[in-house]
């Protein structure tokens, strides 16, 4: 029996070239190595026509190539169960916003006066993620404005690590004034000194509103990040083992799927809990960058799957992946520009803004994010139906697998985006955990769909061949004549007598 080895094509196109960089020659040695062709022929027989595919990919079947009834098993159901469980957990977590309101007596005087307010916030810890403070006068009976100066000291072990001084004003005495919004990185105490002029009434009181994240919600997010990463870790180990095996072959879709898993782990950021022990702004900056990069790659991944599926056999993967790569690059630049205009700059600014309300800026999505999501969903749907008219019958099952999986995740994302736009006071823990659970489940499903397997037809042929074989048959599935079976078989003696 002979073995046929052919030359594997370069895979993953321009994206792998730019992202992997120095790893490209290593991947090329695995996927693009020349493999000698050996056909064992008998000299006494002429060479007959043999079918040779144009690449080794044509001889490799994926789980996604099989009918749904053949792949609807535990590896496909498990990611769905995981998503449902963590979605329910995120919904029933306590409200992540910890709001404390404390009232203090301002003064017993009447008339226009200058007042001094001094307060301290103690026991600040990185577990609270962020901290904000708002000041307001209670039940003021005048529409006159309030003007003053806010001095804020941030201390670590009684040493001042940051100091800000800003002026503020409000149109009404009862309007809340935001004093600061800070991530709890390198301080454990805050001292507040306010000096302002207002037409306060007798026995006037004021209120400090302190907002942070609940410790339980914060720990839940840290734990979920680690769990999601551990669920995807076996696929990374599988990638290392397959790359280290010189006899293994990776299709373009499989390599792109492995990168999708890698970017999902980066999105989950399992080491984010180190922020508790090594507080740094870079943790939050990396979270924003990884979110935008994952968003851009997800669009590239969905477009690439359909374009590889619908490409002509003679077209290389590098050519068909060029357009999705350009889309990914443009999307990433747009999202990154949006964040640099807002969130990331706020991390590094030295003074606090006194004009905006308290928000957890690291997770805020701007209009570009929602616009890109809407355009991407429509573009992927349009490409899916365009490719459907080009694929062969053998590719129809994989098209259905891609379309079902990608459509499901797009529908959930659109619904989630609509809910987030409609409601301002959503649980921050749910907004963190739910997308990570969704993308983790999607990565697991796509990994399962891109595992090597026999085609559905081959499985049916093997099953039919096993049923047809019988030890009493002549070996080609043709039964013997019953009448012949009933006649006695000649013996050696009867044969000799006949002769």
TrEMBL record:
Q: What keywords does the record list, in alphabetical order?
A: Membrane, Transmembrane, Transmembrane helix
Q: Where are the transmembrane segments?
A: 6-27, 71-93, 219-243, 255-273, 293-309, 321-338, 367-387, 399-421
* Coiled-coil residue windows: none
Ranges where the record places region Disordered? 475-499
State the superkingdom. Answer: Eukaryota
Give me the stretches of Polar residues compositional bias.
Answer: 490-499
Tell whether Transmembrane is among the UniProt keywords: yes
Listed GO MF terms: toxic substance binding
Record protein name field: Uncharacterized protein
- Give the source lineage, highest ranks first: Eukaryota, Metamonada, Parabasalia, Tritrichomonadida, Tritrichomonadidae
């Amino acid at each position: 029996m002979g073995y046929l080895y052919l030359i594997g094509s370069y895979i993953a196109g321009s994206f792998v070239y730019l992202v992997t960089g120095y790893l490209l020659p290593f991947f090329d040695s695995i996927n693009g190595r020349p493999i000698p062709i050996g056909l064992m022929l008998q000299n006494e027989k002429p060479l007959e026509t043999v079918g040779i595919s144009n690449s080794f990919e044509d001889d490799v079947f994926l789980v996604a190539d099989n009918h749904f009834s053949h792949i609807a098993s535990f590896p496909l159901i498990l990611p769905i169960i995981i998503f449902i469980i963590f979605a329910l957990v995120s919904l029933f977590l306590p409200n992540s916003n910890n709001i404390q309101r404390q009232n203090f007596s301002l003064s017993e005087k009447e008339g226009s006066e200058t007042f001094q307010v001094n307060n301290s916030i103690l026991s600040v810890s990185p577990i609270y993620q962020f901290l904000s403070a708002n000041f307001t006068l209670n039940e003021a009976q005048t529409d006159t404005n309030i003007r003053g100066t806010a001095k804020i000291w941030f201390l670590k072990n009684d040493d001042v690590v940051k100091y800000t001084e800003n002026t503020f004003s409000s149109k009404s005495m009862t309007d809340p004034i935001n004093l600061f919004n800070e991530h709890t990185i390198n301080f454990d105490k805050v001292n507040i000194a306010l000096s302002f002029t207002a037409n306060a009434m007798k026995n006037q009181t004021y209120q400090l509103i302190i907002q942070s994240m609940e410790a339980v919600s914060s720990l839940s997010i840290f734990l979920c990040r680690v769990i999601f990463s551990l669920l995807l870790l076996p696929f990374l180990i599988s990638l290392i083992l397959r790359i280290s095996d010189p006899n293994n072959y990776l299709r373009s879709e499989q390599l792109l799927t492995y990168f999708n898993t890698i970017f999902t782990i980066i999105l989950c950021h399992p080491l984010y809990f180190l922020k508790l022990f090594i507080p740094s702004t870079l943790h939050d900056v990396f979270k924003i960058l990884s979110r935008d990069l994952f968003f851009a790659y997800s669009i590239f991944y969905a477009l690439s799957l359909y374009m590889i599926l619908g490409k002509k056999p003679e077209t290389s993967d590098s050519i068909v992946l060029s357009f999705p790569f350009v889309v990914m690059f443009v999307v990433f630049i747009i999202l990154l520009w949006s964040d640099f205009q807002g969130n990331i700059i706020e991390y590094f600014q030295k003074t606090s803004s006194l004009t905006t309300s308290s928000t957890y800026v690291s997770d805020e999505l701007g209009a570009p994010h929602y616009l890109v999501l809407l355009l991407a969903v429509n573009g992927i749907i349009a490409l899916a139906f365009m490719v459907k008219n080009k694929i062969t019958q053998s590719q129809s099952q994989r098209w259905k697998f891609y379309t079902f999986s990608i459509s499901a995740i797009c529908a959930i994302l659109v619904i989630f985006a609509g809910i987030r736009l409609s409601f301002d006071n959503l649980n921050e823990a749910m907004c963190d955990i739910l997308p990570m659970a969704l993308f983790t489940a999607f990565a697991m499903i796509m990994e399962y769909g891109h595992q090597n397997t026999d085609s559905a037809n081959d499985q049916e042929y093997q099953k039919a061949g096993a049923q047809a074989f019988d030890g009493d048959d002549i070996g080609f599935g043709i039964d013997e004549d019953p009448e012949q079976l009933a006649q006695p078989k000649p013996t050696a003696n009867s044969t000799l007598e006949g002769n």
